[in-house]
Amino acid sequence: MSIPNEALQKLVQEIETQAISAQREINVVKTTISSKQRDARLLELTSSELKILPKDTKVYEGVGKMFVFKPTAEVEKRLSSEITELKSDVSNLNKKLHYLETTHKNSREHIDQIFRSRGRS
Known about the structure:
Blueprint: H1 5-52, E1 59-63, E2 66-70, H2 72-120
Antiparallel strand pairs: 1-2
């Protein structure tokens, strides 16, 4: 049973499009992971520096062009919450990255398989 050339060419083109799309998404996800990891490290550093300060130290947060007093405990809580959220995002992005890499790999294997089977005919 042989597949007509037009159908085979269309199939290869669809698989190639899927592989290219997956590769683009892989690059976007890797960049996003890197950015979120950098943000998490910055927040962890800020949190560790905040913990070193004496408890009676006044802490101010930037809001637009001004600074607003915030209790240290409130700032630590916010930083901790943001760190947790970023780590969760990174975890989800790593799962998505694994899926995309598998999709890309499978697409490439299917293209190779089509060309190998076509070469035998």
